[in-house]
Amino acid sequence: DQKKASQSKAGVSQVLNRYTYASTLSHLRRTNTPIGRDGKIAKPRQLHNTHWGLVCPAETPEGQACGLVKNLSLMCYVTVGTPGFPLIDFMRQRGMDLLEEYDPVINPRATKVFLNGTWVGVHRNAGHLADTLRSLRRKGLLSFEVTIIRDVREREIRVFT
User: Fold this and answer.
1) Is the entire prediction scored with pTM above 0.70?
2) Helical segments of the chain, H only
């Protein structure tokens, strides 16, 4: 085990900055891009459009780490996730057909149901299913972290737990 310890990466841990409450929060919400600091590549240092609302566009250090060390924005919230299997059973009881049972010839206009990015089934009444899931979340029966998206144009319901 000592040989493995000598070959491990340096700089994995840092001393927590406790100067002020704001600096402590900033330090805890810091992200690090694991590429060499001495490179002159500009792309990893720039903010991508998908970072909107997730990464602070102003807070980054100066010097070699500029743009490689980013901070989460103040309203950004990282979820832990919950198991999705109870949700599949619930949606099956509410009329969702599993993907294995679905025949597109019989019902070509059915709405696809995705759970955590995986296509799990189809539903004939997407509006009712989405409204039911949202009301359960409002009542606290589903975790407040569960995201429910109904895309009418693509005929999809996307649920992220």
Assistant:
1) no
2) 2-6, 21-28, 85-93, 126-139
